[in-house]
Amino acid sequence: MAQTLSRRGLLLILSSPSGAGKSTLARKLMAWDPSIRFSVSATTRKPRPGEEDGREYYFRSHDDFKTLIRTGDMLEHAEVFGNFYGSPKAPVEAAMLAGRDTLFDIDWQGGQQIRNSSLGRDVVSIFILPPSIAELESRLRGRAQDSDEIIAGRMAKSRDEISHWAEYDYVIINHDIDHSFNELTAILQAERLKRDRQPDLSDFVRNLNREFEAR
Amino acid sequence: MAQTLSRRGLLLILSSPSGAGKSTLARKLMAWDPSIRFSVSATTRKPRPGEEDGREYYFRSHDDFKTLIRTGDMLEHAEVFGNFYGSPKAPVEAAMLAGRDTLFDIDWQGGQQIRNSSLGRDVVSIFILPPSIAELESRLRGRAQDSDEIIAGRMAKSRDEISHWAEYDYVIINHDIDHSFNELTAILQAERLKRDRQPDLSDFVRNLNREFEAR
Asked: Does the pLDDT at position A4 exceed 60?
């Protein structure tokens, strides 16, 4: 069924430790419903070769970024190793008003800030857990030839991330990517079917009543 | 993924005006997941030819029924044309404890009573709307050769039922039965993935942490 036009888009927050399958799920979800907008983060770090402004990140100067924070134009932000990262608010609000959902691939700190923001009541948050730590580590090692030290750092960060699973609305244990993807789309479908997310229903029922009266 | 054993089953309430497709959806859902238990109503009306005690209804005497109400053994009940109808509580509680969901095919009055019962926090309620009243009437007329008077009575009841759509968690407009069925299963899948409906997650994450520590 077509989405109703006046529907407010929702904010879909996907978090997980790195290696649990979050980015694959996000990519599949964007392909499944191209109306979903992916929230591109802004950052003060320098672009790497091949990165494009507005695709991987919005690249901003420190001064610009601080202004955006001060003026309330960042939905969430964090400082990591001297660089700022954050989610610009304006494109999210524009998507919401157009009835488009926005997908956030962010960590628990970003998720917490968005939930506590003025747009918090439109947040649907999903945490992806790995089936085991052995599996998580093997996925991390399989990706690249990183040193044990780098892997150890990622594993420590994963443990910290996992400790926040209980702040999320839904939890998916990613045993199998296709099964998990099916669960992810079920959550999105269900959230869109919630009565209070279908503002056009009142008009729809009003028309049914007119039909009753005209019989 | 297998359901966790300690999960408490939920109470899935499906309501709609007669002719909107509710019974077809209920039947398909039971076939889709045979672990779902259909809540068979109790009634004081006499069995019709072909009806079996415990299948269509639990047939009870007026005295027995009144006792069940008095002892709090009815989750909801109503009197219609001198006969009682209601949902026995014990089999629902037994299913819940066994981690099985129970499906209720009941009207808004029953739904309201169950939502306000001691089991209310485990209720997920879904209202099925017809695409139009013309379509609803044609489905009602297509079913049987009923008199215009009987049809008129059903349509009045439908209008009353529809007026309660806003008391439900989810609303599905049944344009197409396959599409609506897909939406219904999405709702059930999503509800089962809610963090607070997965009591075994705490243990699961505790085991992940043990794995971290053992590295």
From this structure: no
Q: Is B190 on the interface with A (CB under 8 A)?
A: yes
Superfamily of chain region A11-198: P-loop containing nucleotide triphosphate hydrolases (3.40.50.300)
ipTM for this model: 0.91
* Three-state SS letters, B40-89: CCEECCCCCCCCCECCCEEECCHHHHHHHHHCCCEEEEEEECCEEEEEEC
Per domain, the residue ranges of chain B are 11-214
Token digits of residue B117: 């019962």
Measured distance CA(B7)–CA(A208) in Å, rounded: 39
| CB spacing of B205 vs A179 below 8 angstroms | no
Q: Which two structure tokens, joined as six digits, stand for A184?
A: 């992810």
Q: Is the dihedral of CA B141, B145, B150, B152 positive or negative?
A: positive
Q: Please tell me if residue A132 touches chain B, with a CB cutoff of 8 Å.
A: yes
Q: What is the pLDDT of residue B5?
A: 52
Tokens 């990165």 correspond to A51
- Compute the mean pLDDT over every residue in chain A, rounded to the nearest whole number: 93
To the question of whether residue A20 is assigned a binding role by annotation, the answer is yes
CATH domain B11-214 topology: Rossmann fold (3.40.50)
